[in-house]
Amino acid sequence: MMFKRGELTSAQIITLILSIGALVVLLGFAYLFFSGNDALIDREACHLSVITRATAPSAAQSGVPLECRTSKICLSISGKKDSCNQFIGEEGVSYVKLPNNEEDAARVIMENSANAMFDCWSMTGQGKLDIFGKAFQSLGETKSSCIICSRVALSDEILEKFPGIRENIDFNRYLERNNPPGLSRTYLDIFTGESGTSTYSTVEENVFESELDKLAKARDTSPEVREALGDLPTVSNQIAFIFAQRKTKLGFWDGALSGATLGSSAIVGIAVTVPGAKSVIASGGGALASLLFVGGTSGFAAVNSWQNQMASAAYCGTLASSLDNPEQGCSLVRGVDYDVKKINQICDIIEGMP
Amino acid sequence: MNKRGEEMVMKNVISLLIAAVVIGFIVFLIFRGFYFISKGNEAESAKRTLEGLMGKIDNLKDGQEGKFTLQGFSSKDRWYFVGFDSRDEIDEKPGECSFDSCVCICPKGGADKGKLCAEGGFCEKIGDKNVTILFLFGDAKLKGSIIDFKLPIGESLGCIPIMSNLFEVIVFKESDNLKLASEGEFVQGDLFYERCRKIYQ
User: Fold this and answer.
1) Which of A51, A226, B30, B83 is most deeply buried (CB count within 10 A of its CB)?
2) What number is the average pLDDT over the span A31-41?
3) Chain A residues near residue B167 by CB distance under 8 angstroms
4) Is A353's CB within 8 Å of B52's CB?
């Protein structure tokens, strides 16, 4: 074979391509770190730590910290700093300005909530990884562990400007009809995975909602009635998107959902689970039911429908890990009113950072 | 066995021993590494928890009372909120408080004889306010305001344990006083609790 002077050899070409590839990767990392996109960096750090923990040898698992920081999102009319009282004095809050139109504002609320749910679901390995492995069993098999992925808060001014915004919020329909940014499948399609939509249950009318609406009206209109009502439930106007995982040997889906099989994903609505939850708990309960059930009817909030409609992306089956005999359990991503009683009912232990 | 064979066996045994020592050392280093990463993570969570609380306290006006939900964290060592007055003996306080009052978050393991926050904790100065920290357990419950709250003997502590899930802290701020209160379950046999009780009394 004849070589011309100055001609590149195949080895040189490969080296050049690899060098360019490495440079692109490095530039990508540099962009990530210097672009100021803290949320993206936090998500990636969390995802990496979740994978590291799930694949670490069982003895070392407890030593691998979960680098998951709770992201804080304030939705407000002004979009200004400190517009959400819920985050006063807290660092690292992202502020989202809502559009001036009621319908668009409702869409942005649903969009941010859906993205928070999707991010939580994807960075925790779609619920299929064993994040709280054998090393955590000393904590008790029945205990559930959680990560609070994000807190989404609504500023007080929203209801003042858009008193009828709750009519425009249909969270489950949003999940059904819209795609996460840059993807070609809907949130619902992605959450249900290969199991399809056979396990999907729509959210029925919430029986509590009308009662809470009445309370809201009474409170808004008459100080006397308000006084007579006494202590109203806490108003948080804030939803926490949590990832919860509970190990189990039997009864994943008991009473919570029919037609679901082992190793399947599903999306379930609160109206489907709450009425049956008590009997499920009384009968020994399924792992999923224990994560889904949030007792009590309190949680009156400015935008009831936003909170009450909150669906959950669930997975029950074998949890992938480095163990010889992988364990089984249920994982769940759901939006819960940021309230001590409600969250502690689902989460015995919270991992990650506030 | 001939001499050459003996030498071979000796060499192999020595190599095996060296390999075992090196592998053991590497495993030890890995575990230490995990331990320090994990401790660092705990410390960062603790620092963020204290900063979160202090940020909310800073936003309270004098005479105001607030109830705040804080996110606890799971940890190998239990952490506590502890308060120190400006009038406390300087050798009982963490160095960073110096002559001021301060609110600290400290690990149980960081307690030393006569000093609750000897090492590993974080503190924030609050001038010369009187600090009262109450943790109620048993039948003692926080009802209404903590402004006029009377301390039930034997059912309260001067430290607030950081829970592994969410917990609430009630804060009352005045120009010369800062009161923090929370309630929960008492952990029997926890020496740190006993020290909190002793110090409070």
Assistant:
1) B83
2) 63
3) 340
4) no
In chain B, which residue ranges form alpha helices assigned H by DSSP? 3-58, 191-200
Which residue stretches of chain B have pLDDT < 70? 1, 29-40, 110-114, 138-157, 186-201
CB-based contact, A79 to chain B, within 8 Å: no
Beta bridge partners of A198: none
What span, in angstroms and rounded, lies between the C-alpha atoms of A114 and A310?
Answer: 10
Cβ atoms of A268 and A172 closer than 8 Å: no
The sign of the CA dihedral A52, A53, A58, A60 is positive
Residue type, A221: T
Half-sphere exposure of A96 (CA within 13 A, CB side): 21
Residues of A in contact with B30 (CB under 8 A): 60
Q: Sort out which chain B residues have CB atoms less than 8 A from A349's CB and list them.
A: 74, 164-165
How close is the nearest chain A Cα to the Cα of B41, in Å?
7
The beta-carbon neighbor of A354 closest among B42, B52, B59 is: B52
Which of A173, A38, A114 shows the shortest CA–CA distance to A333? A114
C-alpha B106/C-alpha A56 separation (Å) is 30
**How many A/B residue pairs have CB atoms within 8 Å?**
81
Provide the H-helix boundaries in A222-259: 223-229
CA pseudo-torsion sign B85, B89, B90, B95: negative
Q: DSSP code of A9?
A: P
**Residue of B40, B44, B165 with shortest CB distance to A349:** B165
* Residue B31, helix vs strand vs coil: helix
From chain A, the residues in CB contact with B168 under 8 A are 340
CA–CA separation, A341 vs B163, rounded Å? 13
What distances in angstroms separate CA A249 from CA A164, A252, A265, B41, B109, one per listed residue? 46, 8, 18, 31, 36
Lowest mean pLDDT among A73-82, A95-104, A251-260, B16-25: A251-260
Q: Identify the residue with better confidence: A157 or A211.
A: A157
Bridge partners of B80?
B106, B161
Residue from A66, A71, A90 whose CB has the most chain B CBs within 10 Å, to mutate: A90
ipTM at complex level: 0.72
Interface test with A, best of B70, B165, B168 (most A CBs within 10 A): B165
Position A119 scores a pLDDT of 93
Beta strands in A24-70 (DSSP E): none
CB contact under 8 Å between B34 and A88, yes or no, is: no
Q: What is the pLDDT of residues A95-131, one digit of tens each?
A: 999 999 999 998 998 899 899 989 998 899 888 888 8
Residues near A85 by beta carbon (within 8 Å), at least 6 away in sequence: A155, A156
Distance CA A336, CA A182 (A): 26
Answer yes or no: do B54 and A70 touch at CB < 8 A: no
Query: Quick one: pLDDT at residue B38?
Result: 56
